[in-house]
Fold:
Amino acid sequence: MESTIPDPRTELPTPPPAADRAGRIEAHGIDHIPDSERHGRPRDLFAVWAAPNVSYLNLVVGGTLVLIGLDLWQSLAVIVVGNLLWAGVGLLAVSGPAAGAPSEVIMRAMFGVRGNRVNIAVTGWLVSVCYLALNWAAASLAAFGLAERAGLTPGAPLKVLVIVLIAAATLAISVYGHATIVRLYGPFTLVLTAVFLLLTGYLLTGGHTDWHYRPADPLHGTALVAALAGGTALIASAPLSYSTSADFSRYLPRTTSPRAVAGWTALGAFVPSVLFTALGSLAATTLDMTDPQSALTAVLPGWFRPLFLLAIVLSAVANNAMTAYSSGLALQAVGLRIRRSRSVALDGALGVALTLYALLVSNFLDTVNNMLELMVALTGPVMAVYATDVLWRRNRYHGPALTDETPGSPHWYFHGVNRAGAAALVLGTAAATLCLSTQLFTGPLAHLAGDTDLSLPAGMLTAAATYWLLMPRRGTA
Structure:
């Protein structure tokens, strides 16, 4: 293992094979990528992870921290601490080049062939579809604003058309797959960063930031601790939803530096997440971020408002293209025998249906948001088990063995279930649930702690310790 990230100037890219070339539909799904088809450079991962995190939703989350009662500097501290979990996403990504397989397959080593199907169905596929609906809803609201500026009345037919068009653009990128994502996300990152930096300039120089902001009734004692813990869990929910980072690193050559893979992945997500979530908190010091889109567009010059709204749409497309890509792999991993392109289309159709229902029929988005708060009790332990396995095996994974789903597979364990992984996930989720504090549910331990949400450390530490103790001291990948 190399001790430093390679100098990008000395990295020589390998040409992509026909099976994974930008502008062509990716041929591979959850099957093993042979060494002869490995290509690319770890620094390409920076843009892959930066584009979806130069995000309007980060602004919304940053504003939420101030709305729950934190002052500016408390909010900024929470943003940095919560986003440190992107280091975990980077650690999981190193398993991609080692195995030549996506995360949805690599996790068979942790949960067993059958046990992993249940894990992926819930923490992979279901969470992905919910995020598709959330992001498309945010993008659609921005697109409706553009339509109004163009003099169009966004009635139901136009809203349906807008949602379908945004989804179609997203799914096209996802269907074409890995190489197209890598090729497009560099320009996406540059465009989105330019727009959001302009927004930053207007907020910082236009008198719309109060660096000395404190709420009228500052939080103290238990209430402050609860807000800090809840805010950290809210920020951490984003990296926790990406236990699939090997999906985007598995085409890299087996000899690629693990430090480089982890570093470029984590850095690409961490930097924009911190900067633009912090921007949301800064905006909330003077603006009413209960309706962030209206509040922000109101203080922007007329010529810039359409660019800002278009950037919201583009950031949602970038975010959801990655999500749809992984959700398609998840459907294959749970046992659906269809091509990846068709599994992406199937998930996209469901995501569109949920988005239409959310925007045209009910308050579905509130329900999804509440459910995702509860899902931290599952996604945290899953990431902890995965990270512990990478360290336990010293990142030694055998791709062809991972693709073997027969009872003779080294990852069949006991009737298809790795009891160590299952126990770690169950106990970690139980510990997290006892410590949850959300609008829908407050666990007994959280209640005893003054409604402080400690689900994040409780779930992850319990899952990691259980897995480490129950796995044999020596094993094979």
